[in-house]
Request: fold
Amino acid sequence: MPTSRRHFFFGSLLAGAVPSAGFGSVPSLRALGYKPFYDKLNVAAIGCGGQGGSILNQAAETENLVAMCDVDDNRAAANFAKYPKQPKYKDFRVMLDKEGKNIDACTIGIPDHMHATAAIACMQRGKHVYVEKPLTRTPWEARLLKDAAVKYRVATQMGNQGYSHESIRVTAEILWSGAIGDVKEVHVSGSPGTHPTGLDKLPDERGVPTGLDWDLWLGGASMRPYASEYTPYNWRGFFDFGTGQIGNWGIHTMGPVNLALQLGAPTSVEMVRQEKASKWTFSNRAVIRFEFPARGGMPPVTVYWHDSAQSDDPESFRVAGMENEVILPPSDNLGDKGRGTVRRTEGGGKRSTQKSAGPRTGAGGPGVPVYGPGGASVVQRPGVLAGNGAVFLGSKGTMATVSRGEGVHLLPAERWKDYVLPPQLLTRSPGHMRDWIRACKGGDAACSDFSVSAPYTEWMLLGVIAFRVPGKLLWDSKLMRFTNSAEANQYVKPVFRKGWELKL
Reply:
């Protein structure tokens, strides 16, 4: 595998421009916000409950947490109490103005519709950013963040933690080795979420809870009455605020597909079927088809997204020839008694067997087993793709990945039993948050740096538009528009409330 192909995914933004001692060793670059590796970053958190709380705590394990912001005191209460000395804010713009001189980097874990707005505000002030997945709500915003990262020269990371796992790299290496031949079709699935779907009308108005600033929560979205169905999590199901299960889990389960097949931009996206479409929310279930052109030596490929796939659905995808195989088994069952024996052919064809440290929760790091932690989220029926994962249909075989890419195996199981992994090609991650922290201190670009994650998010979000506009939609990535649908083009870029417009 040529270095340039791997280079596209890992470290393309900063590689070749990093001084041997890191950015922090050079005074002129230190002024850009990069610190020596031995210094701790001063990190501010935008979004302090839920996943926002999770990532701020990950950053605080090794760095200084210096300021916190959340529009909802109740949602943030536990972490506000955990860090009582840090100044607290509701408006991230006020926080950045008042605390900016003391902030090196920001974690952003808030509703999808405000990701880009908060990230741009941070980047324009020279702050490194870690933005939860999916990176943005619309394709236009994803492209904007990619351009902003280059203009403002900051370290970036999207919070798709599976990209830091051992298994996602092994998946790519297996495919690139030719083990399953040419891949022209992939099926990816996500289990049902807990947010509203298929609504016939918008929810009824409710009184705004004490402690929530509803105007700031809406941010750039148009003003509307508060409803309890929007917060604290159900916003994900509404087109105006979230990206549904394709943004919630598709961004994870399609990660191994994006990496291994080096997808780039599709030529079309189309809703194949959906159950109970809605004007306001995502449908109950759906199947979406993306078509990608040839890429280098790889043939054109069609990727299907199976939204809210369930094992008992008679229309769920059946993998031909695998009627007796469990497609997405618990990933800790894919190795040697759940411990992930790694068999790897090294120099001269010699086979070495290494015992991993056993299944470990989380994303990546030295000693993480190839087959990963966790498992399928639904009861599995042989031959059926359901839950969170993907199946690659190759000319020489079949491969499946589980969850966020934290498990990988060949099908049928008999083939995987004695399979010898190909030589390692890709570098390994110290963990998703630490990967970003290293980048903030002048190390290699993070594995889901915006040069990687923004183009990926951009094509994935075309699927969101397919939920709203029927028919085959032809995409021109260069012009960033659909060539055959004015209706679809109105959803490429958000309409911002006055005062919240975005520009570089």
Notes: Residues 450-466 form the longest helix (17 residues). The domain at 164-197+245-417 is CATH 3.30.360 (Dihydrodipicolinate Reductase; domain 2).
